[in-house]
């Protein structure tokens, strides 16, 4: 099997740590989910402050009921500035148009006009944003003509008009910048969502492809075993020709049954065989792990092999799975741990199962580079072990490097 370009430190969900949400992230999520509550509270507080500022208690002049009314009408619509920015802007604009007719001195609440203009530029439709800018510039002229020109003349009215106009344009530009940031954030979130969907699809496709490769290899393994059964049954039938006919008939039945099983198995697994590359090379097993380690060592990786316990005969499928797991793990060491890394392979023959371990120290330069997501080597190893009732665990080692552990029971799952 040709090693694939896999990323063992990214890839499947069970190999990734789940990030924990901190207090700041929870606060940001809460504010985004409760914008109406936050804006309504701020609008009420601002209305109360501006209304109080328009009374004699704070200003030292006679109470102006018109100023109090305009202050409330300018501030309260800000409660809708993000959920309904067009409605909020229209209400603030109406209160602003009412102001020159009922107020003799501009109240503090005129700051709400700038807030409404910012919200239009940041959250409203483009036509409402441009309309808010036009009304803001018109308001600069109206304020100067109503409150400055009659008392100070054109010499002072012109600078006031320019100052208010610059303030309006600056506020609108800040809102437009906020809109650009929001659109970029939405685009990044959508891209992240699509990448996550693509990663999940790739993981499912890789698992399917791995099952197909396993099915092809199992075809070779089982076909070989059944071929041996057929040959022995045929030989036994011929050898028993001089014996009672019942023995010959039994051997014939064994031969016919084996041939039928071979044909059925080929027909079933043939459905899973898609695409080119239907190799027929002899399949390796656990006994050839030492040769594999020697090949990897010859390629330049410092790798050590430890065999513990007494080796035993394994079913061909289990032996093949053991070989492939070690091969995939060493391939990942070569690809990701770096040229200066060292690895250790442990093959432990326990009484109940064969246990495999591949560790590396990951001290090479390549280990410092963040890998690209989407690797499927761990998926393939897990699929192979699960097929035989075993399991594969993997993850970073404390102090650096990576670790793979596999358990393959000797007895097949019932």
- The domain count comes to 2
**N-to-C span:** 28 Å
The overall pLDDT average reads 77
What is the succession of H and E elements? HHHHHHHHHHHEHEEHEE
Radius of gyration, whole Å: 39 Å
- Biggest beta sheet summary: 5 strands, mixed
Strand order, main sheet: write it out: 1-2-3-5-4
Percentage of β-strand residues: 5-15%
Number of helices: 13
Q: List low-confidence stretches.
A: 1-19, 364-375
Give the tally of β-strands.
Answer: 5
Relative helix content: 55-70%
Shape: elongated
Please identify the structural class as seen in this structure.
alpha+beta
Summarize the structure.
This protein has two domains: 13-195, no CATH class; 286-409, Histidine kinase-like ATPase, C-terminal domain (Heat Shock Protein 90). Helix content is 62%, strand content 9%.
Chart the SSEs and their pairings.
Elements: H1 23-33, H2 35-53, H3 56-59, H4 65-75, H5 85-102, H6 111-123, H7 126-147, H8 149-152, H9 154-239, H10 245-270, H11 289-298, E1 302-308, H12 316-336, E2 342-349, E3 353-360, H13 377-387, E4 391-396, E5 402-409
Helix pairs in contact: 2-4, 4-5, 5-6, 5-7, 6-7, 6-9, 7-9, 9-10, 9-13, 11-12, 12-13
């Amino acid at each position: 099997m040709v090693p694939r370009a896999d990323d063992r430190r990214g890839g499947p969900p069970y190999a990734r740590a789940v990030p924990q949400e901190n207090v700041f992230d929870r606060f940001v999520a809460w504010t985004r989910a409760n914008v109406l509550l936050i804006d309504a509270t701020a609008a009420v507080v601002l209305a109360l402050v501006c209304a109080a500022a328009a009374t004699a208690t704070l200003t030292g002049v006679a109470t102006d009921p018109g100023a109090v009314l305009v202050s409330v009408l300018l501030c309260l619509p800000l409660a809708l500035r993000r959920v309904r920015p067009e409605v909020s802007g229209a209400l603030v604009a109406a209160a602003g148009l009412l102001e020159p007719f009922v107020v003799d001195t501009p109240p503090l609440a005129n700051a709400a006009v700038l807030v409404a203009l910012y919200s239009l530029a940041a959250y409203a439709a483009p036509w409402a944003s441009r309309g808010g800018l036009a009304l803001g510039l018109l308001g600069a002229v109206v304020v100067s003509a109503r409150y400055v020109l009659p008392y100070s003349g054109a010499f002072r009215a012109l600078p006031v008009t320019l100052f208010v106009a610059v303030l309006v344009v600056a506020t609108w530009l800040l809102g437009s910048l906020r809109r650009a940031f929001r659109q970029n954030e939405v685009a990044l979130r959508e891209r992240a969502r699509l990448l996550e969907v693509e990663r999940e699809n790739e993981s499912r496709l890789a698992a399917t492809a791995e099952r197909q490769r396993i099915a092809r290899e199992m075809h070779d393994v089982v076909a070989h075993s059944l071929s041996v059964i057929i040959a022995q049954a045929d030989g036994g039938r011929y050898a028993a020709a001089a014996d009672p006919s019942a023995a010959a008939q039994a051997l014939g039945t064994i031969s016919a049954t084996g041939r039928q099983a071979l044909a059925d198995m080929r027909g079933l697994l043939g459905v899973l065989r898609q695409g080119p590359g239907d190799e027929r090379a002899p399949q390796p097993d656990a006994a050839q792990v030492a040769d594999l380690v020697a090949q990897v060592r010859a390629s330049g990786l410092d790798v050590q092999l430890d065999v513990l316990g007494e080796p035993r005969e394994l079913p061909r499928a289990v032996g093949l799975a053991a070989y492939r797991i070690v091969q995939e793990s060493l391939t990942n060491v070569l690809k990701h741990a770096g040229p200066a890394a060292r690895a250790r392979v442990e093959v432990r023959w326990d009484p109940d199962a064969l246990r495999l371990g591949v560790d590396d120290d990951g001290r090479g330069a390549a280990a410092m580079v963040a890998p690209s997501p989407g690797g499927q080597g761990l998926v393939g190893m897990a699929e192979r072990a699960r097929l035989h009732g075993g399991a594969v665990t993997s993850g970073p080692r404390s102090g650096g490097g990576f670790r793979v552990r596999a358990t393959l029971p000797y007895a097949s799952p019932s």
